[in-house]
Amino acid sequence: MISEFALTQLYAELPEHVILTDQYQKEPFESDAYTVKKELPGVVVLAESVGHVRSVLRVCNECDIPLVTRGAGTGLSGGARPHREGVLLVLSKLNSVLEVDPLACTATVEPGTTNLRISEVAKEHGLFYAPDPSSQIACSIGGNVAENAGGVHCLKYGLTLHNVVGLTVLTIEGDELVLGGKTYDWEGYDFLALMVGSEGMLGVVTEITVKLLPIPAVRHVLLGGFDDVEIAGNCVAGIIAAGVIPGGLEMMDELAVHAAEEFAEVGYPKDAKAVLLCELDGTEEEVTSTTDKVAEVMKQYDASVIELATDPEQCERLWLGRKVAFPAAGRMAADFYCMDGSIPRYQIGPVLKAITGMSERYNLGVMNVFHAGDGNLHPLILYDASDKNQREGAEQFGAEILEHCIRVGGTITGEHGVGVEKIDQMCSQFSLAEIEQFHRIRNVFDVNRNMNPGKAIPTLARCSELGGMHVHKGQMPFPELSRF
Amino acid sequence: MSHDSLPLQNAVNTALEQKQPLRIAGEGSKSFLYTGDTTVPLLATSDHKGVIEYRPEELVITVRAGTKLSELRGITAEHGQMWACDPPLFDGRGTVGGAIASGWCGPGRPWYGTVRDSLLGVEMINGYGELLRFGGKVIKNVAGFDVARLLGGSQGTLGVLMSASLKLLPAPEHTRSIATSLNSRECTTLISQYSKKTSTLSGTCYFDGKLYLRFTGVAAAVEKEMKAFESNEEIDPQFWQKLRDHTLPFFADDKALWRVSLSRNSMFHGVESDELEEFLVEWNGSLLWCKSQNSLPPTMSMKPYAIRGFRNVKHETSQSSKHAHRLKLAFDPQKIFNPGVVL
Ligand SMILES: Cc1cc2nc3c(=O)[nH]c(=O)nc-3n(C[C@H](O)[C@H](O)[C@H](O)COP(=O)(O)OP(=O)(O)OC[C@H]3O[C@@H](n4cnc5c(N)ncnc54)[C@H](O)[C@@H]3O)c2cc1C
After folding, report:
1. How far apart are CA A372 and CA A342, in angstroms?
2. Of the candidates A151, A160, A221, A217, which has an alpha carbon nearest to the alpha carbon of residue A373?
3. Between B58, B195, B318, which is nearest A346 by CB?
4. DSSP secondary structure letters along B216-269
5. Are residues B125 and B37 part of one domain?
6. Please, what's the largest Cα pairwise distance for chain A?
7. Is the shortest distance between the CB of A151 and ligand 1 below 6 Å?
8. Disulfide: which of A67, A415, B87, B124 matches A150 by Cβ 3.0-4.6 Å?
9. pLDDT at B152 over 60
10. Between chains, do A414 and B142 touch, taking CB under 8 Å as contact?
11. Are both A59 and A105 inside the same structural domain?
């Protein structure tokens, strides 16, 4: 529970209706989309203005209590999991589009604006916002900044980091940082880059200026069906090596194809072991040329089926199967656990094979549907959460996948963030000195460490403990690896 | 020539013990930009060079900081690839470490992004003498704070950059460059059309009443766009390298040169004011170079500051110095790296 004193301060600063204290009001906020670990927040504040945000920051700082920021709560790593003794600051009502500047090709919005809304308002100018997480109808741009969210089109157009040009950030110490803006460069440290992906631990983002791009004149989608998952994985590397950067390049394995077919009947080749979806966009000449190249590469990698969609309707149909993959997975098992490891592209084939091996060992199904062009895996582990053995097995299976990603030169999270979910694996990926450097960076903005405590960066004690376990077995975690 | 990080790590540790500040430099190609104390000993990274790993099919290269940019260009070009942010070589000696620390990029900036955009991971020595690694070799990575990208443009104040993994792009298969005589208003009209459509445009530069345009990409696409410019003068593509490295005649005299970063929507507006003596604009009108013996015209309400012969322009709305100061101390508590350089 939050202290009486802090609560009184909140009531003194804020209108009563934005403060939620009753159990039934707080329950919808006990977790984000990572539902394994839940917690009832001390109090919820539904901010309606930047002034409300400032007030919450001031009270949390003065009363020395935890503050967790929440956008839409679609996070998959528990980043927005509330703190029992703190304030959960919800920004979904701060959702105005402040400006669209068609000359500069930028939009300035409040943090609660949904990702898709930005493209909707940009459309009348022939522009769009490129990063498109699958959750884009729901997730907030503030949450995207905090997680450095990715999406299908990030392969060609970059991640959130590459498409955010300006931020206003309020720190818990009461400072306002205006970072970047409409110029291409500026003086000083690149705090903007540091804020992106900082998981709500350095400040509250209150205003975001994003870059908009012209909507591509032409779009084609190529579907390739393969008889072997590993060969399909290698084909991904082959396409990139051929000098083509597709608008999107996604992969689905046999199970994902079947699930999608059952759900939406889009006409994917059901006998294929893997399907690649490759979108090519740009000017007509560019798309014609790159479509030919990609089809050629798919043939070289023995694609059993190649289908080309050139009109918008056909393209939509091919994408539909990919888009319904997650809900479709929901039908395959009682629960699924979505992993987010990221690996070099040339490792896709071998890693998928290793995951199949693990799946047999843990006796749990796994379905792969992911951003193949970026090397960002999303194995969905299928299990039944009401079965304790399966639940524990799923967690171990997931952890083993992440450790495997590190071993092949990858990383534990490509886009979903560390949150509470992957905090132990941080100790495998980083040395104690590196973790300590993260803590020092955190202190630059939040000496009392009240912003989103317990997330993203493990304590040194926690890592020593885990490291100790590994050392006990006679070795450091992955001593042979340059953790690079 | 050493490929080992120990010599540099030892040098830093000795400096820490002796409380002896150091000035970090690669080959010194950008020393004219250095604002710090030049009397302190030099820590040269130029011997720490060479490619650590290059997988062309991954579009990722990992190189030591002292590797020359010219060498990097050569190696990547062999595989039809490029480091797209295209940092200046200046006198030809520029290193990868220097390019990252200065954060400067070439004429393609609005289309290809900046140095930090392509920075996937780094290895560095901080002011505790520790060898640290951040980021990685993969395209997507959100584990931990993005220290790698924070180092972009940090001017060597946070530590010694040892090596970096860079994201590369396929080099364009075809390039055409032309020049056309226009006034600045006509430039605005033309360029604002391009920002709304899919195009192969990848460079613009305006000075002396001429707009220079570069188109790059798939040959058929470039050629189609060139049809609109059939009657215009074709120029040597070397123009863009000379622009990048400041070897165009425009940059060749001793007059004070100002670098002004303008809003993305300025689109060449107002650059022909009477107050500006000589100027050159690139980046779709957002990067202005001008020569003036006096201070800048008041219409450009920015606080200028001078770096010896070269002058930069600082925006009034620069960020909090409190956090910059704390960040410096978070990496370099004894302030041994590049004393006097304040960001
Ligand atoms: C079905 C589904 C599909 C998904 N697909 C993708 C995908 O394709 N790509 C992808 O990258 N992610 C995906 N996600 C994950 C999620 O949507 C993203 O991480 C998203 O960016 C989270 O946004 P949010 O507004 O829901 O943030 P929340 O979950 O509310 O918060 C996430 C983190 O951001 C912090 N935060 C939120 N707002 C602010 C702010 N204004 N200032 C500071 N910190 C803040 C929170 O403290 C928390 O740490 C998916 C999730 C679901 C459920």
Report:
1. 10
2. A151
3. B58
4. EESHHHHHHHHGGGTTSEE--THHHHHHHHT-SGGG-S-S-EEEEE-BTT-TTT
5. yes
6. 69
7. yes
8. A415
9. yes
10. yes
11. no
Taking all residues of chain A, what is their mean pLDDT, rounded to a whole number?
A: 93
- Print burial letters for B28-48: b (CB count within 10 Å at least 16), e (below 16): bbbeebbbbeeebeebbbbeb
pLDDT confidence bin for A358, thresholds 50/70/90: very high
- Report the CATH number that the domain containing residue B104 is assigned in CATH: 3.30.465.10
Helix or strand run (H / E) with residue A144: helix A141-147
Based on the domain organization, do A166 and A224 belong to the same domain?
Answer: no
Instruction: Give the span between the Cα atoms of B16 and B10, in whole angstroms.
Output: 10
CA gap B240, B246 in Å, rounded: 10
Q: Examine the domain organization and report whether B150 and B182 are in the same domain.
A: no
Probe target for ligand 1 pocket from A49, A52, A74, with the most ligand atoms within 8 Å of CB: A74
The number of domains in chain B is: 2
What count of Cα atoms within 13 Å lies in the side-chain half-sphere of residue B278? Answer: 12
Phi, psi values for residue A70, rounded to 5°: -135, 135
Residue B330 in any domain: the answer is no
For all residues of chain B together, what is the average pLDDT? 88
Distance CA A52, CA A72 (A): 18
* CA atoms of B291 and B271, how far apart (whole Å): 12
* Interface A-B: count of C-beta contacts within 8 A: 267
| Nearest by CB: A183 against B113, B225, B261 | B261
Asked if residue B322 is part of any domain, the answer here is no
Q: Is residue B333 part of a domain?
A: no
**Per mean pLDDT, which range of A221-235, A324-338, A354-368, B136-150 is the poorest?**
A324-338
Is A76's C-beta closer than 6 angstroms to any atom of ligand 1?
yes
Q: Which domain holds residue A74?
A: 4-90
Neighbours of B61 (CB within 10 A): 26
Pair A84, A157 in one domain: no
Distance (Å, whole) CA A313 – CA A350? 35
Closest CA to B118 of B84, B72, B78, B94: B84
Alpha-carbon distance of A452 to A138, in angstroms, equals 22
* Same domain, yes or no: B29 and B150: yes
Residue with tokens 């955190």: A442
B152, amino acid identity: G
d(CA A31, CA A13) in angstroms, rounded, equals 26
